[in-house]
Amino acid sequence: GIETAVDAAKIFHSLGCLADAAAASQLAANRMLMTKVPELFPQALGLAMNALSVSKEAENKKSEAIALHTIANCYAAMRDMAKAVENAYEALKAFDAAGG
C-alpha cells in the first residue's frame, strides 16, 4: 500500500537508486490522491515534491516532468487552481524538453 511505497522510496534513496526512489514517491503520491481523502492531499504533495527533488538529483528529465504533473494534480485536488495550472504548464514544458 501507500506506506510500503513511502518506505521503498526511502530505501531506494539510501541505496542511491534515485530513479526508483522517485518512482516510489510518485506511486505513493498518486495512490494518496486516488483515495479522495482531502486530509491526505498535503502529504501527497510533499511526496510529489520529493519525487521532483530526487528526479533533479538524478538528472532524470522525464521523471521531473512526471513529478511536476503529479504536483499539478495535488494542487488541483486541494482546489488551488492557480498553482495547479502553473505546475501543469511546467510539466508540459518539461515533457517537451525530455522528448515526450
Account of the 3D structure:
The protein has 100 residues and is an all-alpha fold. The protein has one domain (2-98): Alpha Horseshoe (Serine Threonine Protein Phosphatase 5, Tetratricopeptide repeat). Helix content is 83%, strand content 0%. The chain contains five helices and no strands. The longest helix is centred in the N-terminal third of the chain and has 18 residues, at 18-35. The chain is flat and about 35 Å long. The termini are far apart.
Topology:
Layout: H1 2-14, H2 18-35, H3 41-57, H4 61-77, H5 81-98
Helix pairs in contact: 1-2, 2-3, 2-4, 3-4, 4-5
InterPro entries: TPR-like_helical_dom_sf
Order of helices and strands: HHHHH
Kindly give the count of domains.
Answer: 1
CATH class: Mainly Alpha
Q: For the terminal residues, how far apart are their CA atoms?
A: 29 Å
The CATH homologous superfamily is called Tetratricopeptide repeat domain
Secondary-structure arrangement, i.e. CATH architecture: Alpha Horseshoe
* Biggest sheet details: none
- Percentage of residues assigned to helices: over 70%
Shape: flat
Amount of beta strand? under 5%
- CATH fold-level assignment: Serine Threonine Protein Phosphatase 5, Tetratricopeptide repeat
- The Rg value, from CA coordinates, equals 13 Å
- Secondary structure category: mainly alpha
Report the mean per-residue pLDDT as an integer. 97
The count of strands amounts to: 0
Q: Helical element count? A: 5
Could you name the ranges where pLDDT drops below 50 across 5 or more consecutive residues? Answer: none
